Amino acid sequence: MDQKSLLLLILFSLSCCSGSQSTIESVDLNGIVPEGMVLIPEGAYMMGGKSDQSDPDELPQHAVKVSPFFMEQTEVTNEQFIEFVEATAFKTVAQNAISMVALDSRC
Asked: Which of 8, 74, 104, 105 is most solvent-facing, going by the fewest CB within 10 Å?
């Protein structure tokens, strides 16, 4: 897998936030599928808990629509991700000091 495809996958993953937002923005499809990627069609699902064992942050259960998006055709192994991080000095959200206010403002 080339670094460009891996970077696109990681950036897409980081752009998805949970919370009150119920739609994930779609990628610009324009009928072009990037090399090594597959199109995942739009869909909907119920997000959240529905039992008395659900945590408060899982309630209320609600419908979420996911727009179509691209996903890398091949999985990324831990070794490949380490190689990417070492080559680019990439820092995950977990590695950066970030407040929930800053995170929520991205969504």
From this structure: 105
CA distance 41 to 60: 26
Instruction: Calculate helix-pair angle for 3-15, 78-88, nearest 10 degrees.
Output: 100
- Note whether 84 and 90 are within 8 A (CB): yes
Express each pLDDT in 21-79 by its tens digit. Answer: 334 444 555 677 888 888 889 999 999 999 999 999 999 999 999 988 888 898 989 99
Q: What are phi and psi of 105, to 5 degrees?
A: -70, -20
Distances from the Cα of 60 to the Cα of 26, 38, 71, 87, 105, angstroms: 25, 32, 29, 42, 22
pTM: 0.46
Tokens of 19: 């919370």
